[in-house]
Design brief:
By secondary structure, the chain is an alpha+beta fold. It contains 9 helices and 10 strands. Strands 1-2-3-5-4 form a 5-stranded antiparallel beta sheet, sandwiched between helices. Strands 6-8-9 form a 3-stranded antiparallel beta sheet, with no helix packed on it. The chain has a two-stranded antiparallel ribbon with strand order 7-10. It is globular.
């Protein structure tokens, strides 16, 4: 995917990076994946590697995306130590910005195809994805928010900060977001609910490109997970955005909830509070889509118009619930 944030480098520099990491004998280098933020390369030497490079240090990015590549390494470590979900092994990191003006790391290249590129029945996809989500939700913390930004004592303060940071990100590009301010105001109105949310690891980005599938010798499907850098400590309900149809509201995701509850530490109940919390999940996603297009794309890019239509749908759904529930 074309994106202004990608810091593309030449093969000579990649050779230097791998030499610094103690890896020699490179025979092949090629761009990898459909990511829209970092530059990613597959590098073949004694094994297949992935080289991931953050945007240049001086390139404008969203507040929550600053130092996000460090966050990715952190969450890989967290997932590998606290779950049985397969993630890549990280071999080498360099956050010094001495060789290139950006953070980068080298990791294992996992085999497999994206979840949407393999023939699987819907129930298997739903069950396996819900099981992975249930596993990370068993990882708890006493602070909320993005580790690359500020952590807070409760979910209200963390969510409010996420929203306000995005509003300020828009302002830095000379843009205003009335819907962002509206979402912030709703957070104040539902503060009592947000204050009582328990804290766990939340990925909020488990879309098809981030789930790889392979079959073992017995034909059993195996799922693995990449790109957890957008994870945060927060409300587990936010992960249900990525389960089943993303434009469906949570009370329509009955299959995911059933599979999730079978594996979860604490089952999810669909009630007034859950619906409000999910409305904030899709509201925040709408705000991210609205603002990030100014940083990544131009109106000539597919991503620009995908975000335009996407955030319109998500805002409409979120505000319908927050407006109607408010009057109950």
């Amino acid at each position: 995917m074309v994106s202004k944030t990608k810091f593309l480098i030449d093969k000579k520099t990649i050779h230097k990076m791998f030499e610094q990491a103690g890896i020699n004998g490179i025979v092949k280098i090629m761009p990898l994946g459909n990511g829209e933020f970092n530059a990613v390369y597959e590098v073949v030497a004694n094994r297949n590697y992935v080289l991931k490079i953050a945007p240049k240090t001086d390139f404008p990015i969203l507040t929550y995306e600053k130092n996000m590549i460090k966050s990715e390494v952190y969450w890989y470590d967290m997932i590998s130590k606290k779950t049985d979900i397969k993630v890549p092994e990280v071999y080498y990191t360099d956050f010094s910005k001495k060789l290139i003006p950006a953070d980068w790391f080298i990791m294992e290249k996992l085999e497999g195809k994206q979840r949407n590129q393999i023939k699987l029945d819907k129930d298997t996809i739903t069950k396996e994805t819900a099981n992975m989500i249930a596993q990370i939700h068993k990882i708890h913390n006493n602070k909320f928010g993005y580790i690359q930004n500020e952590l807070f004592d409760n979910w209200y303060d963390a969510l409010k900060s996420m929203i306000e940071n995005l509003i300020q990100d828009a302002q830095r590009m000379g843009k205003k977001t009335k819907n962002g301010k509206r979402l912030s105001a709703y957070a104040d109105k539902y503060k009592d609910i947000l204050l009582n949310v328990p804290c766990c690891m939340v990925n909020y980005d488990l879309w098809d490109p981030n789930v790889l599938c392979t079959f073992d010798k017995k034909g059993k499907i195996e799922f693995s997970w990449i790109d957890p850098e957008r994870s945060f400590w927060g409300d587990r309900i936010f992960d249900f955005v990525c389960l089943e149809n993303p434009i469906d509201f949570i009370n329509n995701k009955t299959d995911s909830i059933q599979h999730y509850n079978a594996a979860a530490e604490c089952p999810v109940e669909i009630n007034r509070e859950t619906e409000i919390r999910f409305a904030f999940a899709i509201g925040l996603l709408a705000l991210i889509q609205e603002v990030e297009k100014y940083y990544r794309y131009t109106p000539r890019h597919f991503g620009w118009w995908r975000n335009v239509y996407g955030h319109m749908i998500y805002y409409k759904s979120a505000f319908k619930v927050l407006r109607n529930t408010q009057n109950n």
